[in-house]
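Follow-up to my post from last week.
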Amino acid sequence: MKILAKSPWVVHFNCNSCNGCDIEFLACLTPLYDLERFGVLHIGNPKHADILVVTGSVNHRNARVLENVYLQIPDPKVVVAIGVCTSTGGIFADCYNILGGIDKVIPVDVFIPGCPPRPEAIIDGLVQSLEKLEAKRAGKKVAPARKPTFTFRPPEEAEAPVTPSPAGSAGHGGKE
Amino acid sequence: MWSDWETISAFISQACPGLLTVIMVLAAPLVGALLMGIDRKITARIQGRIGPPILQPVYDVFKLFAKEPLFLNRLYIFYAWLYLAFMILVVVLLAMGQDILMVLFVHAFATIALILGAMSVRSPYSRIGASRKIMQMVAYEPILILFVVGIYLSTPHPHSFLASAVMQLKQPLLFTLPLLLPAYFAAVVIKMEKSPFDVSSGHHAHQELIRGVTIEYSGPFLALIEIAHFYEVFILFLIMAMFWSTNLWIGAGIALAGFFAQILVDNASPRLTTFWMIRFMWAGPMLLALCNIIWLYGMGRG
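User reply:
Got it. Predicted complex:
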């Protein structure tokens, strides 16, 4: 029986986000999307949580805090990274203090692309993470997630999907 | 025939002595969990959401048992067990028709076990939650004591504190304790951790003060506290049903009405600060309870 998937409690950690992804994540909990109908509770405490939701581009200052929050969650646990900042650093990628992706600090199980992602995408990512949560409980080896390799621009701008450079500039192509 | 508690308990205890206690100890957490599930569903519908399944509290507890047992020290695990054990003891005492004063004290010990557990770790959130829990006890315990005094005065001469004596009353408790019902209801709202009194830990604001007393409990140990809370929910509404002990159906109706009323109060009211909670409880419900006791003395019940 899939016990863990029926009651995933989420702790949300904002490491240096612009709050766009945070607001989209909170929108998932509003009456319009109502994540609680899947048993999801937005819990403030890592010791009660099953899923760590991270937003923002991690930097040297808060990498230690992020790792600390991750270590306080009892196993089995999964990490869901929301937004392009968590995978590459996003529009902050070129800043001197940005590490460029939270996977350099903690293992990530699901990357949700977007700047910010829509609530539907976040719910989809959480549902994908539940499968990994059950696999971890069954004792299977779960490989870390692969980073999103493309993103979309609005139709009037985009000719083709953009591939980010290793430095990661998926969110702000064409500004310079 | 089946609306009479005497008939049912006599029937069960004739069939097998002690069976009633076993049934109540086993059924109490299930009933409590179902009530909590219905509570979450109704709250969600009031807020325009679909809401989790009714069995969600059960899923939560099973999930918590599947998690890794992480703990800081052995003492606070012991207090979690103690909290659960005292709650089960309350159900046992009620099922055996024992002293209601004793039930009140054991119930208070259960809450104190939770407070001591929260005090035994070094988290400041836990300490704040514990001190607020003590303030909650200061707010509602006098009302519960007056309630027990009211029950004592309602029983025929010579008075008795026994729960079995309440079950043998010729007229419902509500006729002698009309003002104690709203006062007890206010105490229930505190015990259920509902707005406007959810100052130490709440069921909706999971982030605020990081849920106070339970912050350091995780996995199976949090599950123990959840199960103890299921027992507590059952106990609170069982005692509310005792207000009409002569007919089980009317008693259950009063308990259900109280249950829905506390959901409404929870959704309709903002949170009071800790000291406003004490001011409110001592000025309103406690005054009602005192008036009821004085009235009972005036009726020559003393």
